[in-house]
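Morning!

This is the sequence you dropped in the shared folder:
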Amino acid sequence: MSKEVSKKSDYRPNVAMIIVSDEYPKKKEIFIAQRNDLLNIWQFPQGGIDKGEEVKEALFREMEEEIGSADAEIIAEYPEWISYDFPTKIADKMRPYKGQIQRYFLMKLGKDAKINLATKHPEFSDYKFVSATEVLDHTAHFKKPVYEKVINYFKEEGLL
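The structure's back. Tokens below.
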């Protein structure tokens, strides 16, 4: 991990993925999943980086744990760590962390990838593919600035 991450030790190191279907780049629809603990809140799959774990190792492990498949390829990586603070309600449950610091990846599902949300510890109850604009209509307010920044970066790079 970089020095920037170690400086933010009160932020949980995390990987996050913007997943596009196997029809990318012809179709630029983005995978979002509905949280099973919050009504009408959708998000990108994401998860913590374990101590000693490499970022890309965590990326594929978390993808498998959250959507039941790690059949994907990395298209691009957001060039820096990006952080957000938890709202007070969530921060109390996430102590000692006050937020997350994340590495974002743009990933394309494999041709035969099978999404299965009924994982060992399910976090999501449903999923769908939506346009980049629609993502922001469905996400939690405290994640919107990060999502917008990352999506806009990939759009500017001609990837979304």
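Headline: The first strand starts at residue 11 and ends at 20.

More detail when I'm at my desk.
O.
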